[in-house]
Amino acid sequence: MFEFIFLGTSASAPSVHRGLSAHIVSFREYRILIDCGEGTQRQILRSGIGFRRLNRILITHGHLDHILGLAGLLSTFARWEAVEELQIWGSAWALERIHDLLFGVVLRGARSAVEIELIPIEPGVLMKDDHFQLSAFPVEHRGHGAFGFAFEQTAHRPFLPQRATELGVPVGPVRRELVRGQSVKLSDGTVIEPEQVLGPARRGARLIHVGDCGNTEGLLEHIAGADGLVIEATYLESEAEMAKNFGHLTARRAAELAKQAEVGHLYLTHISRRYREKDVRREAEAIFPNVTVARDFDRFQIRRHTLPQGSG
C-alpha cells in the first residue's frame, strides 16, 4: 500500500484554494516528494507531515511552477537540520535550472549545511529494495525532458497459517524464517520448506504519477493495470486546441487513458482556476467513473485492486 498526499493541485499559478504542484508518496520508511512548486514548504507544514526523512525529491520537469519551491525548502532544511542530505532527481535540463537556483541564488558560493546531490534521470529503474521499486518513463511535454514515475510494491507470497499448523510449525520465529524464504527444522527433525507454507505470488500495489503531459501516446504500456493513476487535467475538452498548443491534457483525454489502461482509480490534478471542479469531474466521469478531482491536502491509500479478467 502507498499513501499519496496532494500538497498542491493548481496549474501554472496558485489560486485561493490550490497551491502549485507538489505531492508526497509514503511507503514504509520512504517519504518521496514529487515536484516542489513555490510555497511547498508551507504546504508541508499545513499538512502536518513535517520535514523528517523527506530527503528524496523527484522532478517531473524543469518548468518554474514545479521547481521554485526548492529554494525555500533548502533554506528551511539548513536552518532546522531536518535532513543531512538531499537527493534531487530530474532530467539534465531540469537539473541545470535547479543548479542555478540553488547554487547561484540561494547559496551564492556559500557551503550548504545540507549535502545536495543532483541525480540525472534516465528511463528505467531508479531505486529498488526488497519491498518496492521506483521507475521512470519519458513523457511528452513542450520539448524538454519530462518524466512520469511508477511506484511498485514487490510481489509477495502470502503465508498460509492453517497449512503451517497442519505441518506442526509452531507460532513464532520459525514461521518468520519461512516467510523470509528459509527452510526450517522442527524439534522432531522434520524439515519444512517455504514452498510448503507459502501461497501463490500476488503482485503488490502499483501507483503511477504523470505530471504535465501533452500527448498520451506511448504511455499505455507504463500505466496499464495501475491501481492508481495521478495525472494532470489542465483543460476541458471545449479548449482542446489550447491544451494541445500548451502541451497539456483535457479531463476527457486523461479519462480516456485511464479507461484504456484499466486503472483502479484516476486522480486528476494540475487544475486550472479557469474551471469549476465539478465541471472537470463531470467531463472525466462521463468516460471513466472511478475518478477524483484532487484538492490540496487530500490523502489517499493506493492498494492493490482486482484486475479485469485477461489483464496482467
Describe it:
This protein is an alpha/beta fold and 312 residues long. It folds into 2 domains: 257 residues, Metallo-beta-lactamase, Chain A, CATH 3.60.15; 36 residues, no CATH class. Helix 2 crosses helix 3 and helix 8 packs parallel to helix 9. The longest helix is centred in the first third of the chain and has 16 residues.
Task: Produce a short descriptive summary.
The protein is α/β, with parallel strands linked by helices and 312 residues long.
Provide the CATH top-level class of the largest domain.
Alpha Beta
The arrangement of helices and strands along the chain is EEEHEHEHEEEEHHEEEHEHHEHEE
Can you tell me the residue ranges where pLDDT is under 50 for at least 5 consecutive residues? Answer: 307-312
Major β-sheet annotation: 7 strands, mixed
Q: Which architecture name of the largest domain does CATH use?
A: 4-Layer Sandwich
Q: State the shape.
A: globular
Termini gap: 19 Å
Count the E strands: 16
Q: Report helical residue fraction.
A: 25-40%
Nearest-angstrom radius of gyration?
22 Å
Q: Total helix count?
A: 9
Class by SSE composition:
alpha/beta
CATH topology of the largest domain: Metallo-beta-lactamase, Chain A
Mean pLDDT, to the nearest integer, reads 93
Furnish the topology, listing elements before pairings:
Elements (H helix, E strand, L loop, with lengths): L1 E7 L13 E6 L2 E5 L5 H8 L8 E3 L10 H12 L4 E6 L1 H16 L7 E6 L3 E5 L3 E8 L6 E8 L7 H6 L6 H7 L4 E2 L5 E2 L13 E5 L9 H4 L4 E5 L7 H7 L4 H11 L3 E5 L7 H9 L5 E3 L5 E4 L10
Parallel strand pairs: 3-4, 4-5, 5-6, 12-13, 13-14, 14-15
Antiparallel strand pairs: 1-2, 1-16, 2-3, 7-8, 8-9, 9-12, 10-11
